[in-house]
Amino acid sequence: MTSVKEFRVERAATPDELGRGRFVFTDAYSIFDWGRMPDAIPEKGRSLCAMGAHNFSLLEAEGIPTHYRGVVADGSVTDLEDADDAPREMAIDLAQVPDLPVEDGAYDYGAFHVDAGDNYLIPLEIVFRNSVPEGSSLRSRRDPEAVSLDAAEWPDESVELSEPVVEFSTKFEEQDRYLTRKEADAIAGRATLDELATLAREVNRVVTERAEEVGLTHEDGKIECLYHDGEVRVADVVGTFDENRFSYDGHELSKEVLRQYHKRTQSEWVAAVGEAKGEAAEGGKTDWRALCEPDPEPLAQDVIATASDLYTAGANAYLGRELFDAPDLNSAVAAAGALE
C-alpha cells in the first residue's frame, strides 16, 4: 500500500464491514517511485503523522468523511491535541484491498472489482494543483487554455491557477500513470468521479486555508479514498510534506527538496530511473526497477540533518505548536536553500 508507512491490521475488513488498523509512520523516504531510499530522515515519520492527524481533524470539523480514528499515545487511541509527544502511529478504519491481477502487462480492474464489492480502497489517486511549476508534467498533457490560462503557450515560470485542476492517476500499478476521465471512471468502480473530484477540492480548500493561516503556500497534493456501503471517505493521509507540495517565502518545503537534490547530485541515477520506466512501458512490463541497473547513493549526514530540520520545523509551523525540537522555520528553509 505504501513504501514508507508500515501497515498493521487489528481487525480485517470484510465484504460488508470496515476493519480497524494502524499506520506506523517510519523515517524512510521514497522519491521517483523507487521505494525506500538508503537513508532514514530522523523524526520525518512523526512529523507526517502529526500533520496528517491535524488535517483529518480539520476535515472532520468541516463534515468531510474520513477513515481517521485518532493517534496512538501510550498504547491508546486519542486526539492529537491530547498527545504530549509527537505520535508515530495513526488509528484508521480499513476497507478491503483486493489483489490487482496482471496478465500480459495489463492490469485487470474487472477482477479487482469483482472481489471489491461494496467495501474497497479505490485504486485511484486524485491529484489537485493550485499552481503549475516549470517542468510539471501537466504542461505536456494540457494546453494552457484548458486550465483557464490566457496564453497560447506555457510560460517558462511557475503559474498560479485561478481554480484548482483535478486529475486522476493510478494507485496500485508499479508505475503511476495519469488517466483520461473514461479510464478513471472504469477504474473507480462504484464510486463516481464527480464525488471524488468534489472531495479533492474540499480537501484542497481546507489544507490551503490552513497553510495560508501560518504563512505557507499550498501548491498541490493528492488524496486517496475508500468506498463503503455507498459512501466515499478520504483515506490514507492528507496534507503532509510527502503527499503535498508546500513552499515558504518562495522556497520549497516538502519532499520536493529531496527530489531536486537528487536531480542535482545523482543525475545519472535519476536518468536511469526515467529510462527504465520508459523501457518497461514500451515492453509492456510492470517491474521497471529490474531494468534500472544503478542504485541510489546514501546522503551525507549534513543533508540528512537539514532534511530532518525541514520536516520538523515545517510541522511545528503548520501545527502552530512546538511539538518538535527544531530550529525556527526561517533557519530550516535557509539551510535547505544552501543545498541548491
Task: Describe the protein.
This protein is of the alpha+beta class and 340 residues long. It has a single domain (5-337), classed as ATP-grasp fold, B domain (D-amino Acid Aminotransferase, Chain A, domain 1). The protein is built from nine helices and 14 strands. It has helices spanning 44-61, 109-116, 138-141, 181-188, 193-213, 256-265, 267-282, 301-319, 329-337, and strands at 5-11, 19-25, 68-73, 76-78, 89-94, 102-103, 106-107, 119-121, 124-132, 159-170, 217-228, 231-235, 245-248, 251-252. Strands 8, 9, 10, 11, 12, 13 and 14 form a seven-stranded antiparallel beta sheet that branches. α1 runs parallel beside α8 (301-319), α6 (256-265) packs across α7 (267-282) and α8 runs antiparallel to α9. The chain is globular, with a radius of gyration of 20 Å. The two termini are 32 Å apart. The mean pLDDT is 94.
Layout of helices and strands:
Layout: E1 5-11, E2 19-25, H1 44-61, E3 68-73, E4 76-78, E5 89-94, E6 102-103, E7 106-107, H2 109-116, E8 119-121, E9 124-132, H3 138-141, E10 159-170, H4 181-188, H5 193-213, E11 217-228, E12 231-235, E13 245-248, E14 251-252, H6 256-265, H7 267-282, H8 301-319, H9 329-337
Antiparallel strand pairs: 1-2, 2-5, 3-4, 3-5, 6-7, 8-11, 9-10, 9-11, 11-12, 11-13, 13-14
Helix pairs in contact: 1-8, 6-7, 8-9
